[in-house]
């Protein structure tokens, strides 16, 4: 279970894009459940199919840019009435062995997902083996204090993209602040999404240094925390528990 929050209200689109990129990165060929609360849809808009396809490594013609491109047809979209039904649907999805990732957009995270609710989601993720990505929609969360059992909490800010060779818009780029990491280190990074290869890439050192001097972000070297390894550990743990129950 991982929480993804926008630094400011204007960064909500960046937070959703980062959540999608994480879901694509962690996917191992299974289906993805995308849950969107009605209020979140009204405030932040509906997912854009062509944009999802591009981030997933598909050209506008539907061809794969890379051998491991994710097929957007494996995304199951679900709309919910309120935060309570969103969290219930997320818990059920995390228990489903046919899903790799469950991405949920919820408004009013502080009032809806307390420590007890987050523990239920964590237990569901362990039992089912899926990765849960809970996105705070509709507002910024720089100073939001929420007690949670989630493994990580990310604060996401939008970063200027580098233009392509022909002047076209560049890759999606973010200021990443890992504000909480149970059992690991926190940190800040500047990263962009390499949709052709389905991975995060460091933004050029010169641009990162300029951003750090401006106070927008601190560019750190190294990779993001190995969430993929954590997911593999959860899956193995879930399989071990299911095997023990069978015995």
Key terms:
disordered C terminus, alpha/beta, 247 residues, globular, 9-stranded mixed β-sheet
Account of the 3D structure:
The protein has 247 residues and is α/β, with parallel strands linked by helices. It has 8 helices and 9 strands. It has helices spanning 12-26, 38-44, 49-55, 83-94, 109-112, 115-128, 205-214, 227-246; strands at 2-6, 31-37, 75-80, 99-106, 131-136, 152-158, 173-181, 187-194, 199-202. The chain has a 9-stranded mixed β-sheet, with helices on both faces. A hairpin with a 5-residue loop joins strand 7 and strand 8. The chain is globular, with a radius of gyration of 18 Å. The chain starts with a strand and ends with a helix. 40% of the residues are buried. Mean pLDDT is 76; it is low at 205-223 and 228-247.
